[in-house]
Amino acid sequence: MKIRLNIGAISEPLQSEQFKTGDWGTEWSFVDREKCTACRVCEQFCPDGCIEVKEIEGKEVAVVDHNYCKGCGVCASVCRYGAIKMELKELFKVDVC
Amino acid sequence: MRFFGRGHGACPGCGLAIAVRNILEALEGKCFVVNPTGCLEIISSQYGRNAWGVPYIHPLFDNAAAVACGISEALKVLGREDEGEVVVLAGDGATADIGLTLHGMFDRNHDVIYICLDNEAYQNTGHQQSALTPLGEATTTTPAGKLMLGKIGRKKDMVAIALAHGSPYVATSSAVLPADIRRKVKKAAKIEGAKYIQIHCPCVTGWGIDGKDVVKVGNLAIETALYPIVEFENGKLLTVRKVKERKPVEEYLKIQRRFRHLFTSPEGRKVIEEIQKIADENALRYGIDLKK
Fold first, then answer.
1. H or E stretch including A59?
2. What is the pLDDT of residue B292?
3. What is the mean pLDDT of residues B194-222?
4. Cβ neighbourhood burial of B77 (10 Å; 0-12, 13-18, 19+)
């Protein structure tokens, strides 16, 4: 006897990575490499997982991936060293007359 | 490799996404995720936009616990228990209202970690009240007006329900305490039986807060004792997150849109007093105040 099993929809892992969410918000976070101590707190807190500690020019610093940063500001609010600043995107820097 | 991919559809500043990332990283991806309908399902599992890097199944709203029990038993029969933990990531509606059938899981004591991501309402359908909605919160099904000031009645005490079933490990945590989440999830993974962890996840759109205030609001819930962070093992209270100087509940309520109606009328003031009473009770019950 043959039984036909309906297995439903199955997806490939991590397909969401191809959808760049970096254009969602009006702000992006920027890391001050002088002040950053690579404590990894922002890395744990980022809801989108777009902050990673990497070695740049011999120093470990947090790096924000602007392809995915939604500009929520959680990282800036948890940074104990004041190393992360939120800045308005160039697109929204307009003069209102 | 990532366990919860970037590019998912959560609102900017979503507390739930912080919690999920930390849970999966604590388990090092060795888990089978069961996720009933809710915010997490909507943001991470649209067809063609799957954000999961771990095995994932989406059951019905009400049978997440039953599906998890099945997976856990199947792994035992196949001799594949060491491949990972079975983890349920359910919302508060799927835990306390619709999915309260999790009693069966506790009864038979299956080896499952049940994690409730508590954002205090049905947020994905637009903020309807659930059993875990706190007193006085204005939702679309309990709107604030002349006759009614938000939700009537208290938050359901899911921790007490889990404890009454004799669950070996029951804990609460908050999305703003990633280190605490990691420690508790790792500990739960080592214990055999049906474990329950409830995580407070600030919701940006539903609660009416800014993404920048997510951490502040989450911390205020702990500092006012409205959300006690506790841990029970075999029914015994192990740890409590103590607070040096407990803050009045107004500080927590006034920065959220969902409670703003309480500050405009004398009746609202009475509700705030009632909420303060709940906080005092929590503090007394778990000994949250640090003794001087």
1. strand A59-64
2. 65
3. 94
4. exposed
In angstroms, the CA B252 to CA B222 distance is: 10
Per residue in B113-146, pLDDT tens? 999 999 999 998 989 999 999 999 999 999 998 8
Instruction: Spell out the SS3 assignment of B44-103.
Output: HCCCCCCCECCCEECCCCCCHHHHHHHHHHHHHHHCCHHHCEEEEEEEHHHHHCCCHHHH
Q: Please list every residue in chain A whose beta carbon sits closer than 8 Å to the beta carbon of residue B32.
A: none
> CATH number of the domain at A26-88, out of 3.90.650.10, 3.40.47.10, 3.30.70.20, 3.90.1860.10?
3.30.70.20
Q: H/E element holding B114? A: strand B112-118
Half-sphere exposure of B93 (CA within 13 A, CB side): 17
Q: Which helix (H) or strand (E) holds B286?
A: helix B266-286
Q: A42 in contact with B at a CB cutoff of 8 Å?
A: no
Q: What is the CATH number of domain B15-286?
A: 3.40.50.970
Q: Is B122 helix (H, G, I), strand (E, B) or coil?
A: strand
In chain B, what are the domain boundaries? 15-286
Q: How far apart are CA B285 and CA B290, in angstroms?
A: 13
* Whole-number Å distance between alpha carbons of B211 and B283: 28
% of chain B exceeding 70 in pLDDT = 100
What is the Cα–Cα distance from A57 to B212, expressed in whole angstroms?
Answer: 31
Give the burial string for A39-63 (b: 16+ CB within 10 Å, else e). Answer: bebbbbbbbbbbbeeeeeeeeebbb
Instruction: Specify whether the CB–CB gap between B174 and B180 falls below 8 A.
Output: yes
- B86 neighbors B113 (Cβ within 8 angstroms): yes
Q: Token pair of B268, please?
A: 């609202």
Confirm or reject contact between A37 and chain B (CB < 8 A).
no
- pLDDT one-digit tens code per residue, B50-78: 999 999 999 998 899 999 999 999 999 99
- Check A72 against B215: CB less than 8 A apart: no
Per-domain residue ranges of chain A: 26-88
**Cβ of B8 and A16 within 8 Å?**
yes
The ipTM (two decimal places) reads 0.89
